[in-house]
Amino acid sequence: MIDRSGLRSSAGKVGGRSRAAPWFPALLGLALAAALTFLTLPVVAIFVDSSPRDLIDSLGEPGALDALWLSLRTTTTSLAIILVVGTPAAYLLATRSFRGKALAVTLVELPLVLPPAVAGIALLAAVGPSGILGGVIEAAGIELSLQTAGVVVALTFVASPFYVRQAMAAFAAVDRTLLDASRTLGASEARGFLRVMVPSAMPGLTAGAALALGRALGEFGATLMFAGSFQGITQTVPLAIYDRFATDFDSALALSAVLVAVSGAILLSVKLVQGSEVLGAPQG
Amino acid sequence: MTRGRRRSSPRRSKSASGAALGAVWLTLAATLGLAACGGGDDNGSGGDRPRLVVSAASSMTEALTACAPKFERATVRLSFAGSDELAAQIRQGLKPDVFAAANTILPRDLNDEGLLSTPVEFATNELVLAVPRDSDIRSLDDLSRDGVKIAIGSGSVPIGSYTRDVLSRLPKAESEAILGNVRSNEPDVKGIVGKLTQGAADAGFVYVTDVNATDGKLTAIALPNDLQPTATYAAGVVKGANQPAEAHAFVDGLLHGACAEELDKAGFGAAP
Question: What residues does B8 pair with on adjacent strands?
Answer without folding.
Answer: none
